Structures are given as structure tokens and as C-alpha cells.
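During the reporting period the student researcher (J.K.) took over the structure-prediction task from the postdoctoral fellow and processed the backlog of single-chain submissions. One of the processed entries is reproduced below for the supervisory committee.
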Amino acid sequence: MDTQNLEIERKLLISLPDEKLLSDIDGVLIYDISQTYLNAMPKTTERVRKRVSRNKTEYFHTVKKRVSALTRIEDEELISEREYEELLLRKKEGTVTIEKTRYAFPYKEHIIEIDVFPFMKSTAFLEVELSGEDEQFELPEFVSVIKDVTHDPRYTNAALAKVDRDPLDFE
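J.K. obtained the following C-alpha cells:
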């Protein structure tokens, strides 16, 4: 297994933090993200992402293969706008493009990512990448965890992109 491309991540459903507070955190990077899932090989998730920050637009193509609930092999590359547009033609049937705002900031020894979705009025997702599945991490005091959804496939972005997804209790 290529450990260079391993993504080990915990995902938490949290109460929606004040976005002004998030914007004011030292070192915060704020991105508006459009994420589209593509037709992919079995046991693989494939997506393209348009990421817009204050002064830059970037495009990414990502392929993930599940190893465990916390760990995936992830291959991601920066692509051109033309490649992005071409890959969009492979959009997975029955899905919509997800729009979200990501606040990424350093906290203790980790980078905390908080994703705010327009359809989630009182909740958000927090993700933290780890160096091992058993690694402990701390959260900022303003974060109010509702539950750990790392092991619940209904809370993946790919599941949220499904047109006919089960309604979740985000509120």
C-alpha cells in the first residue's frame, strides 16, 4: 500500500459555528468549492472540484479507494479548466454538484477543515486528517460536536450528492 497517498480522516457533525468567527481565525483559508462526482470503477470514488479563494481558482481531479472507514488511498491532481470541463461530462447519473464553503485553519498539530453547506442551516462538518487511525486530536473550544459520523456512509459528500439521498437530521 502506498502510504504517501493515504488519507486518514475523522469526520464530525457539528453545530454551525459563527462564520464571522471562522473568517477571523489566524491563518484561515476560505474556499468556495463546487464538487461533482463522476462515474468510476467499482469500490472507487472519483470527483472533480473547482476551488475558488480570494485571488485564485483551481481545479482538481481526485480518485479515492476505501481501505477502512477512516482510511482511503487518495490520488489527487491539479488540472486545467479545460480538463475539468471535459471530466464534468462523466458526471455520475442521479447526483448533483455539491456547493460548500470550506474554512481550513491550523489548530494544535492539525489542520481543521469546517465545511458549511447552504442546505444545512444549523450544522456543519468538521474534518481532520490524521497520521494514524488511533491518533488523538483536540478541537477548538467554539466547536460543539453533535456526533462522530466517520463510520456513517450517509454523511459522505458522495452520499450528499445523490438526488434521492435519505434525508438526514442536519438541523
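The committee noted the following: The domain at 3-160 is CATH 2.40.320.10 (Hypothetical Protein Pfu-838710-001).
J.K. will present the remaining backlog at the next meeting.
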